[in-house]
Amino acid sequence: MASPPPKSPEQTEKSKKYDRQLRLWGDHGQVLLENAKVCLINATTLGAEILKSLILPGIGAFTIVDGETVTEEDTGSNFFLDYDSVGMPRARVATQSLLELNADVHGDYIDETPEHILSHTQNFFNKFNIVIGTSLPEKVLIPLSKHLWEANVPLIVCRSIGFLGYIRLQVKEHTVIEAHPDNENPDLRLINPWPELKVHLEKTDISKLDNKERSHVPALTILYYFIKKFQEHNNGALPRSRSDKDEIRKMIQESAVCDENGVQILEDNFQEAIHLVNIGINPQIIPTQLKKILEDDCCTHLTQDSSPFWIMCAGLRELVQAEESLPVRGTLPDMASDSGSYIALQQIYQKKALSQSEFVYRRVCQIVTDLGIQQDIISEQEVKLFCKHCSELYVMRGSCIADEYEKNSPDLSVYLEDPDSLMFSYVVLRGLERFLGEYNVYPGHLDDQVEPDVLKLKIITGKLLSEWRCTQILRDERVHEVCRYGGAELHSVSAVLGGIAAHEAIKLLTHQYKPLNNTFIYDAITSSSATYTL
Amino acid sequence: MQLDRTPCVLGEEARSLVKEAKILVVGAGGIGCEVLKNLALSGFQDIEIIDLDTIDVSNLNRQFLFRKEHVGKPKAVVARETILGYNPDIKVKAYHDSITSQEYGVNFFKQFSLVLNALDNRAARNHVNRMCLAADIPLIESGTAGYSGQVELIKKGVTQCYECQPKPTQKTYPGCTIRNTPSEPVHCIVWAKHLFNQLFGEEDPDQDVSPDSEDPEAKTEDGHSMTDTGNVKRISTRQWAQEIDYNPTQLFNKFFFEDIEYLLKMENLWKSRKPPVPIKWEEATTDGEKTEVKDDDNIKNTDMKVWSINKCAQVFAKTVDVLKKELSGRNFLVWDKDDQPGMDFVTACANIRSHIFSIQMQSKFSTKSIAGSIIPAIATANAIVAGLVVLHAFRALQEQYERCSAVYLRRKSKFSKFVLAADNELQKANPVCYVCSPKPFVNVFVNTNTMTVKEFENEILKKQLNMIAPDVVLDGKFVVVISSEEGETQANDNKTLVEMSVVEGTVLKCDDFLQNYELQIAVNHYEAKEKDDPLFKVAVNPEDLKAKEDIKNGGANGKKEENHDEDSDDEPTIVENPPEDPQEGSSSKRRKLNPPEDSDDDLIVLDEIIE
Lengths: 534, 611
Ligand SMILES: [Zn+2]
Prior knowledge:
The complex is a heterodimer.
Chain A: H1 9-17, H2 19-34, E1 37-41, H3 45-55, E2 61-65, H4 72-77, H5 90-99, E3 106-110, H6 114-120, E4 130-134, H7 138-151, E5 155-161, E6 164-170, E7 174-176, H8 195-201, H9 211-214, H10 219-233, H11 242-254, E8 257-258, E9 264-265, H12 268-280, H13 288-295, H14 297-300, H15 308-323, H16 339-371, H17 380-388, E10 394-396, H18 401-406, H19 413-416, H20 423-439, H21 450-467, H22 476-485, H23 491-510, E11 519-523, E12 528-532
Parallel strand pairs in A: 1-2, 1-4, 2-3, 4-5
Antiparallel strand pairs in A: 5-6, 6-11, 7-10, 8-9, 11-12
Chain B: H1 12-20, E1 22-26, H2 30-40, E2 46-50, H3 75-86, E3 91-95, H4 106-110, E4 114-117, H5 122-135, E5 139-145, E6 148-154, H6 175-179, H7 185-199, H8 237-243, H9 248-265, H10 281-286, H11 309-327, H12 340-356, H13 364-371, H14 379-397, E7 407-409, E8 420-422, E9 441-446, H15 453-464, E10 470-474, E11 480-482, E12 507-512, E13 517-525, E14 537-539, H16 542-552, H17 558-569, H18 587-593
Parallel strand pairs in B: 1-2, 1-4, 2-3, 4-5, 9-13
Antiparallel strand pairs in B: 5-6, 6-7, 7-8, 9-14, 10-11, 10-12, 12-13
The complex binds zinc ion.
Zinc ion (ZN) binds at residues 160-161, 163-164, 429-430, 433, 435-436 of chain B.
Family (chain B): Belongs to the ubiquitin-activating E1 family.
GO molecular function, one term (chain B): SUMO activating enzyme activity
Subunit structure (chain B): Heterodimer.
């Protein structure tokens, strides 16, 4: 639509400020972002960098939970803690300077440790759309992870130590309507067209057209005509293989006629038809991923607590059962043709898409009534968007971090067969956490303790690997290397990780694009990264 | 007490190098702000920053050193102040200036240990590339576009240079080009979009469509600008349009006749250019065949065809009317390429302007693809890339160049689904690169009968080959064709190449003193035959041009569609979401999956980077 509803001056200013990002996630994504409440636990360098990249694009509000005071070391690598603030509560100083980044964002802080909050006001974290934790010791991480898993609040855990980085997403269930696939083919339905489309396409007999008429036929009609021709030559068989497609291309090519000067020409629209052969002939099938979603328990057994996503899935499911196909996307690629023919064709697609989304919407309304929940929970507009993107629907079911640590020992041996695997960095990081839990300090933090710490860390990682029934061992130099870090953050590594973690948070908050599933490891020495599902 | 911010993690050698290093950051935009912060927090003590731009509202969603109250101020200056506010102990020098200015010669570059590019346009990138090659200073080049980005090292004799591989065409344009001297369809399209906003959209002073009398090129010899000679700023375009109730004829005559007449008065602009031809409503609507624009005809039919001037005028009148009605009761309209009246309006206006300036007119389809491409920019991608830049800087300072292979953020490719992935090795220089090879050489294809020396200098040497102040002599004949000395070869300016004995087979020796760059140019006589043919071409190897043309002729939908087709060609049936679609595989896989050298993925790699 060209014309938005009248906007207040404030919104105008906002849309200007956010112009470059609205092009990525749209107004509806921005609305979700602006309504989001984000909690950061520990305003470390990494924590502040993550929050910075969320405040700039305009989340609604943030809360920093941090029981520490600012140290001199902090001010050396954290842009949001200045030297004069040494000794003051880190939560307060960071909140104040981060708030300067964007006047539209609200922020507050709690000058308490996360342990304290967990033991006193357990439900404190439930009000957030996302909780992000940095430098969490195991004794906080495990209960927090369990609590947020139960409360169904997404948790992102991040670590930045020396040249190593780690990001772990914990989401019980996350649903995506707009996955933004890199490639998207037009949805044409030339194989098995619905009756109205079929009647329309069959009105044109390409062989009976004069030159002027030929140049006005949309490529779709041409392609459909030659698919039919192909079927006539092949006992009704549909074109499937590459050579079938080549045959159709050849048929189109050979239909070229001579112009008034006797020169053989193939008009633009016929060339377009040749281009469309590849993508236009595929039968429309329901992607397996979507089939799974439509058969999912959440879709077949709705409750009053079902999310709009699943209610819309249930509506879609009824349409698919009734019509044995997905809703038509309703948009056509641009084509050379005369206006009348193109518009007629376009209207047939739009009408179909509209009637299908109306069907789904009616079903959704019925379901909502039957469930006895609020009528306006899902708008017709949302159903339209949902139907348009139905082939990209995506459901991610994650795993609980506490389980990864306590119950299911991860099966890492497959990865560890490659001596360069970044999974070794995961082992190191888990070792560091355990070290921290046992000794309350990072290995190598004190200059005179480096050698003894190396030994201790070797023992810890050895134990971890045997707990996980892995036969591989950690190379000595890896252990030496992390002990050299002494637990210190390198600002640029935290900058990289902060951007990546913030971006995952944006994906979760806007429900667009597929999030990382679920563990991300970054090695800044080799500039490489990897994602593992743990 | 001064805090030692050099991280212990770096090790002794690196720490002392960081403390002594002098760094030049070129650009204080999205990446530049982040890079400055990272440098200041990594122990760097001596930083210089240069940027020509001033701060705009649309920068604030990512350029975090700037606040609302800084809008309109120079980026470099404000960035410096904010950084010093955080850490007053370091030395930061700011230049509010263009890096291509003559003041920043090879000796300027030589004083730095490293140059970090954080630029938004190719011309400046090319220039800094040459300066760093000439000064033999390592350069770290970076860019982002939407979610993607990349970082690479450029070091003479070690890696490829920025210009080793031909890049797709540029996308940002100076204001005077848009307002005064358009030379490509895209300039007219940008202008038409600005016109839409002036009339119906949100008014933006940066999007003025009237002639720019402050154009440095338009200044007369005695340095006077045209401001005092007319074009009194009456009222805003919007106000005036409302006063005449969006009368299409009056609007048409103002933008396509009166403003053009005014431009013609800036005589300096047309000394080496073809002057525009103003057109009046009456003339436009009698020109060519009569095309009725019926009410129920929403123009879609002709998307692929180029409209006649008459049709453009009719569409202009009709869409002005439609948009005027849409506007009533609202504050403004938002232009959207997918919205028909807005898109039709832009197509019509861009084409009328193209006609006036003798520029190739475009179909609505092509106009839409050009008009719709704005490069999105977000904080997260800039933060990631800037972090990578400074990590590369640590390695480059220690001369560990082999560890500085290019790193990509969310590279779009069928091979790589990693968030971050590095090349296995440094990209080798192209042995026939016309910039960094030992004897730079290039072929140009121009119409030697019609192209003037001045056009050759502006269009070929400056715009295509990115020289700043070239000297050109006929090889072996010591005839000076173009001199960088003011006025020395002015007499040649309006002569055609043939008149200067520059013909098919001529070799020209070009020398850009500022860039310390010598280039031999082989001249090929060439005449554009088809309407779509470019007016001139530049290539090291004429064979390359053939390959490009084949792509171009591939289909009306252009390259993107073409690749798209080819992708699915190998898998003839159904494209479906893979069951598990992580953004990355495991690290071991990555090594095997690194794209082969001849992969055309490099075509996609961002260059059109806004920040
Ligand atoms: Zn080169």
